């Protein structure tokens, strides 16, 4: 059984930075993809419109945001990647200090 989480974050409003951010995501470090998989994330997609990003996580029963954050803190390669990505990213106005990706509230789902 999988669960879905949707999160959002902004990029800095600079076309050159946005292009570079997209380029870097064409070649994500293998240690980053492994850390994502190891955390219980089965699928991850990021979409972009202007400066607003939207991330969809489909996770298994082993996933928790707390465990992922703790594992990331212990992983210097993940810390390096996150620091590099923060050069392109911009916190949302409602973010607390240190928060990046914020969870979105689902307000509608079409039922079949």
Topology at a glance:
Elements: E1 3-11, H1 15-24, H2 30-38, E2 41-49, E3 52-59, H3 65-74, H4 76-86, E4 89-90, E5 102-103
Antiparallel strand pairs: 1-3, 1-4, 1-5, 2-3
Description:
With 112 residues, the chain is α+β, with helices and mostly antiparallel strands. The protein has a single domain (3-103), classed as Alpha-Beta Plaits, CATH 3.30.70.1090. It is 36% helix and 27% strand. The chain is built from 4 helices and 5 strands; from the N terminus they run E-H-H-E-E-H-H-E-E. The chain has helices spanning 15-24, 30-38, 65-74, 76-86; strands at 3-11, 41-49, 52-59, 89-90, 102-103. A hairpin with a 2-residue loop joins strand 2 (41-49) and strand 3. The longest helix has 11 residues, at 76-86. It starts with a strand and ends in a 9-residue tail after the last strand.
Provide the domain count.
1
Secondary-structure element series: EHHEEHHEE
Total E-strand runs: 5
Q: How would a crystallographer describe the biggest sheet?
A: 5 strands, antiparallel
Low-confidence stretches: none
Which range does the strand content fall in? 25-35%
Separate helix tally: 4
Helix content: 25-40%
Query: Could you name the CATH homologous superfamily?
Result: Dimeric alpha+beta barrel
- Which structural category do the helix and sheet elements fall into? alpha+beta
Architecture in CATH?
Answer: 2-Layer Sandwich
- And the CATH topology? Alpha-Beta Plaits
- CATH class bucket: Alpha Beta
The termini sit apart by: 19 Å
* Rg from Cα: 14 Å
